[in-house]
Write a structure and sequence with these properties.
The protein is globular. The protein has 221 residues and is of the alpha+beta class. The protein contains five helices and ten strands, in the order αββββαβαβαββββα. The longest helix has 25 residues. The strands form two sheets. The chain has an eight-stranded mixed beta sheet with strand order 1-10-9-4-5-6-2-3. It has a two-stranded antiparallel sheet with strand order 7-8. It has a single domain, classed as Glutaredoxin, CATH 3.40.30.10. The N and C termini lie far apart (57 Å).
């Protein structure tokens, strides 16, 4: 019989598999979303609105939907105790961020790292962690129900998973989506970054930077 943890992991795996299948069908359907001038960013035929949210940023202020307006934004969920996916992803994104530092702050692409481990990731700890990769990275978190709603709006999932019996009492990790969502200057979900940080399809930082620079140039106010 499956225990609760096993069922949670299976649900996440199923959700990830369905999401990948849907994405493959979506982009292969001849809907005109594949742009030869974009290397790793895949845009949806129609951006979709994100339901209202309120995240607490590392500086203590709230991050509301309107504050993402005017910028292309790459969003990634994770947690500071993450052993591999999170630091690798933030390292790659920091390399991309350095390539658009010369742009004006008012239009410069953004990276938003959202911690789905509010139990351990205080705003101060989260800010120290994210800014160690790049000073411009936005870092935010919220209570679990708010984080679940926000993650679902990006077609992402996460779950708290206890460690094995040899681990200290109460020790746990977080299983979470490793995908990167792309928001347009209106703060809508506009697409995804293709590839994964865990395989040979890793998006090259220069390709991520080039795509975001191109999109930013196309949407100057």
């Amino acid at each position: 019989m499956f225990n609760r943890t096993t069922l949670v992991i299976l649900c996440i795996a199923l959700a990830g598999g369905l999401g990948l299948l849907a994405a493959q069908t979506f982009f292969a359907g001849g809907s005109g979303t594949a742009r030869p001038d974009l290397q790793v960013v895949q845009l949806y035929p129609q951006p979709r609105e994100i339901p209202d949210f309120a995240l607490q940023q590392s500086d203590g202020t709230q991050l509301l939907p309107g504050e993402l307006a005017g910028h292309w934004t790459v969003v990634f969920i994770g947690f500071t105790h993450c052993p591999d996916v999170c630091p690798m992803t933030l390292t790659h994104l920091a390399q991309a961020q350095r390539q658009w530092e010369a742009l004006p702050e008012a239009t410069r692409p953004r990276v938003l790292f959202v911690s789905v481990d509010p139990e351990r990731d205080t705003p101060e700890r989260l800010g120290d962690y994210a800014h160690a990769f790049h000073r411009d990275t936005l870092a935010a978190t919220a209570d679990v129900p708010s984080l679940e709603r926000f993650a679902r709006s990006l077609s992402m999932v996460f779950a708290k998973v206890p460690l094995d019996r040899d681990a200290p009492d109460g020790a746990y990790t977080i299983d979470h989506s490793a995908s990167l969502a792309v928001l347009d200057p209106q703060g809508r979900v506009a697409g995804v970054v293709s590839g994964s940080v865990l395989n040979a399809e890793t998006p090259r930082p220069d390709a991520v930077a080039a795509d975001l620079l191109r999109l930013t140039a196309e949407h100057r106010p």
